[in-house]
Task: inverse folding
């Protein structure tokens, strides 16, 4: 069975600080997909990134970056120079087929001005 | 661009009542899903469907039923509401293959059973 663990339940930072959200997953499958979703206070789920298990290349998108390390089964998410608008719940998820995702419990990020 | 539309947005039920959460998507996606999100928790899969006429149980199906008569619609039925079903419900859809796709989520239905 799949399991996703997000080590931090809540993180509080001051604007412009860098922050890293940790995600560790467990799976026996060789092909799988990893995701990060953002859930702002409005409640909707916003897709941030998808990563395939055979592609360990890290990715940067503006202030966001993701570090995928298969050897440690981790898929960490870093926000550089955080902003108040980054305040949200962030979910890491892992899936093997057709959208049956296993989600972590979420990390509540609060960015103070 | 409607995407995935869920109705209602909020609902309060009494114990033992029944209701249907509606979900429709206009992206011609074959795959549709129902997730629930309990307070402080991640999402858990209730039911999913890989196409019209085909449904299957997810991780937490007890107390729910689904049907998929069309590609667009995937309603979730609660027959005898219980307080344990108080949650936020998300419908989602995707194309067949996650290797180049993501889940598209609706805005959620907040359900309270009192």
Result:
């Amino acid at each position: 069975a799949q399991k996703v663990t997000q080590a931090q339940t809540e993180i509080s930072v001051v604007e412009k600080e860098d922050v890293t959200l940790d995600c560790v997953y467990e799976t026996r499958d060789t092909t799988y997909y990893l995701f990060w979703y953002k859930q702002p206070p409005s409640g909707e789920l916003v897709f941030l990134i998808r990563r395939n298990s055979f592609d360990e290349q890290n990715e940067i998108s503006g202030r966001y970056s993701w570090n995928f390390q298969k050897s440690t089964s981790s898929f960490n998410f870093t926000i550089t120079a955080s902003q108040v608008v980054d305040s949200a719940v962030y979910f890491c998820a892992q899936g093997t087929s057709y959208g049956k995702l296993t989600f972590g419990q979420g990390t509540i990020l609060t960015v103070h001005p | 661009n409607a995407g995935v539309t869920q109705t209602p947005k909020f609902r309060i039920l009494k114990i033992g009542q029944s209701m249907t959460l509606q979900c429709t998507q206009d992206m011609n996606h074959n795959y549709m899903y129902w997730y629930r999100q309990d307070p402080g928790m991640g999402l858990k899969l209730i039911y999913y469907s890989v196409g019209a006429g085909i449904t299957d149980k997810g991780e937490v199906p007890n107390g729910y039923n689904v049907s998929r008569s069309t590609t667009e619609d995937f309603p979730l039925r609660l027959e005898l509401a219980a307080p344990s079903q108080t949650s936020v419900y998300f419908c989602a859809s995707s194309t067949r293959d996650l290797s180049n796709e993501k889940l598209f989520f609706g805005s959620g239905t907040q359900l309270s059973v009192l």
Notes: The interface with chain B takes residues 4, 9, 33, 35, 37, 43-45, 47, 50, 52, 91, 93, 95, 97-101, 103-106 of chain A (CB under 8 Å). DSSP finds no helices and twelve strands in chain A.
